[in-house]
Design a protein that fits this description.
globular, alpha/beta, 10 helices, single chain, 9 strands, about 260 residues, two-stranded antiparallel sheet
Amino acid sequence: MKSDFDKAANSYDEEFTYSSIGTIQRNQVWKYLNEEVVDKQSIKILELNCGTGEDAVRFAQKGHEVVATDISENMLKVANEKSDNLQISYRVLDLNKIEEFEGGKDFDLVFSNFGGLNCVSSDAIRKLGEVVSKMLKPNGRFVAVVMPEFCLWETVYFLLKGRWKEAFRRAKEYAMANVSGEQVKTYYFSPGKFKKLNADHFTTEILKPIGLHIPPSYLENFLKRRPALLNLLDKLDTVFARYSWQAYLSDHYYIQFSKK
């Protein structure tokens, strides 16, 4: 897994972070982060799977102290280049060995964006939840943006193309997902399953769809030529985001836990 993301580091921002779809989906995530967590007071944040550091930089620009981690040294190198004069500490961390992290137990927020946690199995998520709960202060929050077991856009898209196996690939134990040309072993978790894996240590506060009408990023080329349609889909996501059950159908979902 490390070498896969190392190879993807140099092209990831161009292909996802700064794409039209990637930008809209990230803005949807930050709407909830701003409302619920980061605009209230200065806090200490641990980010898991920080990738190229886009979220770490936003956190730091808002005055928060950030420890940003990723398994890929190349991803961290790209991230570090973005963060001059910002209060961010970057560290290599394999989520399958999260218990080895020695960065402290005084975090207000542990955060993982855009399917970083889909790179580990159910057993690893259960263990991760236990470790994360110990890292958090009392009343601390754990926020994750996760890919569910079913995505309406993806299923319809592949069915229309006659690619039946790909239409329901998320329903398998795991699938190989394309990340900047590299095939990465990926596990999918319905919101209900993700809640259950973390239920011993956390209470669910918020569940929201991310990318219900906005499609997965591999449809970027189609939509960037149709900005009016993209704008309409963005507005539809804003209108219908109030319905938490739609998290079971979207490309990703935002789930916010509080420590028990």
